[in-house]
Design goal:
The chain has 18 helices and 8 strands. The protein folds into 3 domains: about 210 residues, Glycerol-3-phosphate (1)-acyltransferase; about 70 residues, no CATH class; about 110 residues, no CATH class. It is of the alpha/beta class. Helix 3 links the parallel strand 3 and strand 4.
């Protein structure tokens, strides 16, 4: 009997915990919400928004220890070696019309495997937008996930219900490594009940209804901003309004959504004034970026005071940073070179993750051996702990310095601060 993609693999099982660890440590803060929404019975297909290339799959994989199978666009399977690696990592190809008619014919086998995965109660994870996009929005969903759901329901819907679970991923920054990440599971769609209770017999109509339901439920799980001409000023307002407030990532997302609603309401009730405001917001954003000031600094009432404690931390951490720079050179140098050549900067965090996954064991094992060969065991043990966290610290220290310098600049940019106050965002939203 042919081996199924969801069957156990010793090597995969050994590598999986390490891959999850690398995913968790790719973010300063990593939160998972909504797992109480996952059905306790039946077969589950997951529909996820797609905004940050491979990291979307990695963070979802790290949400639990359960077995998972993913589906990805078929064109990345063109190289036979890559195809074998993808199959090993439990990824199935899903071809689209743009890949050509011949390629689409291969979908029959993939669809059959996908239905078999779902039947075996292994989670099947898809990104129905079809491509990644670094925006707090959502593209129209492709039909592949709904074909699989309806085929699964036809084959074994009488034995067990088939569900589609919406999943939203929210990042603090799409391009900076060691930012924040939240994975949010939403209310499941019971496909079996939906079809059984529907009077509609046309499958295309049923599929479109399911597509609208999933699209709407995913938008509830993220900071969703309509992708129109006002997307950029709306996102700038959201960042400036909610950067300062503390709390978990979920609460921040709710605050973001509330601000988006207020902005949309303002657009409807004050169409002319909103156009003027949005123009001013984008002018301010351009000036802020040009002067290399982070949006986090704009939330500071006393930026110079904030920069002083950051300076103190930077001075205390400087020796550790310099040591971390040296011992992790084998990772950050090739990662930096690859990132500098990327055409799509959305792959930046994926490259950082890949560098950590492949090279950090060499740093840790080699460094540990060197420590125990040259120092007393108690000093070597302490050095090993510092070595373990050194790559994270290397990124976090640079982020601390970036924000410190930004705060100092913001403190002395009087005209820019006046421009910010003139926007009157606190009164409006």
């Amino acid at each position: 009997m042919a081996k199924k993609i969801q069957d156990n693999s010793l090597l995969y099982s050994l590598l999986r915990p390490y891959a999850d660890l690398c995913s968790w440590r790719s973010y300063r803060r990593f939160e998972v919400h909504g797992q109480e929404n996952l059905p306790k019975d039946g077969a589950i297909i997951y529909g996820i928004n797609h905004s940050n290339t491979l990291m979307d799959a990695m963070v979802v994989l790290a949400t639990s220890h359960h077995k998972k199978v993913f589906m990805a666009r078929g064109d990345i399977f063109a190289n036979p070696t890559i195809a074998k690696i993808l199959k090993f990592t439990r990824i199935l190809p899903l071809y689209r019309i743009r890949n050509g008619i011949a390629a689409v014919r291969n979908n029959t086998e993939s669809m059959e495997q996908a239905v078999d995965v779902v039947h075996d109660k292994v989670g099947l994870y898809l990104f129905p937008e079809g491509r990644h996009r670094t925006k707090h929005s959502l593209l129209q969903l492709s039909k592949g996930i709904f074909h699989i759901a309806m085929d699964s329901n036809k084959e074994f819907g009488k034995e067990q219900p088939v569900y589609i679970v919406p999943v939203g991923i929210e990042y603090g920054d799409y391009f900076r490594y060691r930012s924040t990440c939240m994975v949010n599971f939403g209310e499941a769609i019971n496909v079996t009940d939906f079809i059984n209770n529907s009077t509609e017999e046309n499958e295309a109509v049923l599929m479109n209804q399911l597509r609208e339901m999933l699209w709407e439920r995913i938008t509830r799980l993220i900071t969703f901003i309509p992708d129109d001409e006002d997307y950029d000023p709306t996102w700038e307002i959201v960042k400036m309004k909610n950067e300062k407030r503390m709390g978990g990532l979920y609460k921040k997302m709710l605050r973001n959504r509330a601000t988006v609603e207020k902005v949309e309401h303002y657009k409807e009730t004050h169409p002319e004034e909103s156009k003027i405001l949005f123009s001013k917001v984008m002018d301010f954003a351009e000036h802020r970026v040009k002067q290399k000031i982070s949006v986090t600094s704009t939330a500071k009432k006393r930026p110079l005071l904030n920069s002083l404690w950051k300076l103190l931390l930077a001075l205390l951490g400087l020796p550790y940073f310099l040591a971390s720079t040296a011992v992790n050179a084998i990772i950050w140098i090739p990662v930096s070179i690859i990132k500098s050549k990327l055409k799509d900067k959305a792959f930046s965090n994926t490259v950082c993750f890949g560098g950590r996954f492949l090279l950090s064991p060499l740093v840790f094992i080699g460094g540990t051996i060197a420590l125990f060969c040259t120092l007393p065991w108690y000093w070597a043990l302490g050095g090993m702990v510092l070595l373990y966290f050194s790559y994270d610290f290397w990124y976090d220290y640079q982020e601390l310095c970036r924000r410190m310098i930004s705060d100092i600049r913001w403190a002395f940019k009087t005209k820019l601060r006046q421009e910010y106050r003139s926007l009157g965002l606190n009164k409006l939203f």
